[in-house]
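User: Here's a structure from my thesis project, written as structure tokens. My advisor, Dr. K., wants to see whether a designed sequence matches the one we expressed. Can you design one independently, without my sequence as a hint?
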């Protein structure tokens, strides 16, 4: 089993520290400025309009907790971010600059165009996230993120449990199965959209259909997949939870 993320991001920007430097230069004035920047940054964190793309439905908070107690019960694909500005690597070691970790999310998932760390809102966002690093529950060491390059067929699953896991891990974007209205409108209707392309009626085996759910969940918009869905690591969504979701969405016997 491969254990690296397979998502390699070269540091694209000259000077990996541009984000921190821009923020500290902009905030070197009074502490009132800093406090209001932190407050504005908390709003940016929860604001989908931070990306100006009309196709974007996400805020940072869609996929990340800023502090551990937020959004209890939800299985979010992104790590908790208190302490993240002090971590040495990101995305399971495949990204080495904080700025590039944020840029990846902003450009790939939020379709925000080229990430600008010197934008006022970016500076406020940095100030906010960095202010959380002094909390006692901050995590400043790298977060393990395992995204297997190749996936195995899901093991036996419990559909009843799978419904609960689906609600917590998938429902906040996809809505309930077959929902016409979804919280993230661009998120597919599950399992219908997948069945339409890879369904038994199209000549695929049920095993193939089940494998599509596994692959898409593990790889999101990476590793051969297009789109804007985030990948779920094996740490955030263990294999058994995923097998239970698949048992719920695509049972072997109907
Ligand atoms: C659609 C979901 C999604 C959105 C929206 C999103 N992220 Fe992410 N983010 C992820 C995933 C998945 C990862 C990879 C797992 C990880 O490292 O946390 C990640 C990783 C990161 C990391 C690296 C964390 C680490 O320690 O490895 C940072 C920092 C980050 N995101 C910040 C942001 C910020 C700031 C925003 C808003 C501008 C944002 N993200 C929006 C899904 C998202
Ligand atoms: C942060 C939002 C988000 C979360 C959480 C999320 N998805 Fe998605 N998903 C999307 C979006 C947006 C698309 C359509 C664009 C794309 O393919 O990336 C999608 C597409 C898919 C597809 C492809 C459907 C097709 O058209 O064939 C599958 C399968 C899927 N998701 C399964 C899941 C499962 C299972 C979960 C929970 C473990 C999940 N998703 C969680 C946003 C999300």
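Assistant: Designed independently from the structure alone:
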């Amino acid at each position: 089993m491969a254990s690296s993320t397979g998502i390699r991001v070269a540091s694209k920007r000259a000077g990996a520290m541009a984000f921190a430097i821009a923020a500290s230069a902009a905030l070197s004035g009074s502490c009132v400025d800093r406090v209001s920047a932190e407050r504005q940054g908390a709003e940016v964190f929860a604001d989908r309009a931070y990306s100006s793309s009309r196709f974007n439905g996400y805020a940072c908070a869609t996929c990340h907790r800023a502090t551990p107690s937020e959004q209890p019960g939800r299985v979010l694909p992104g790590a908790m971010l208190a302490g993240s500005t002090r971590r040495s690597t990101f995305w399971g070691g495949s990204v080495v600059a904080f700025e590039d970790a944020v840029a990846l999310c902003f450009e790939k998932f939020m379709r925000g165009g080229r990430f600008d760390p010197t934008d006022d809102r970016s500076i406020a966002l940095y100030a906010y996230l960095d202010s959380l690093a002094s909390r006692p529950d901050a995590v400043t060491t790298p977060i393990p993120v395992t995204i297997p390059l190749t996936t195995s067929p899901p093991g036996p699953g419990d559909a009843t449990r799978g419904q609960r896991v689906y609600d917590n891990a998938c429902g906040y974007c996809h809505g309930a199965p077959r929902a016409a209205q979804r919280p993230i409108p661009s998120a597919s209707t599950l399992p219908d959209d997948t069945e339409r392309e890879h369904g038994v009626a199209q000549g695929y085996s049920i095993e193939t259909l089940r494998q599509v759910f596994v692959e898409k969940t593990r790889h999101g918009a990476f590793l051969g997949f297009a789109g804007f869905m985030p990948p779920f690591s094996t740490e955030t969504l263990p294999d058994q939870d995923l097998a239970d979701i698949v048992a719920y969405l695509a049972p072997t016997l109907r």
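When you compare it with your expressed construct, this may help: The pocket of heme C (ligand 2) is lined by residues 62-63, 169-170, 173-174, 184, 186-188, 190, 193-194, 197, 212-213, 216-217, 221, 227-230, 232, 237, 245 (CB under 6 Å).
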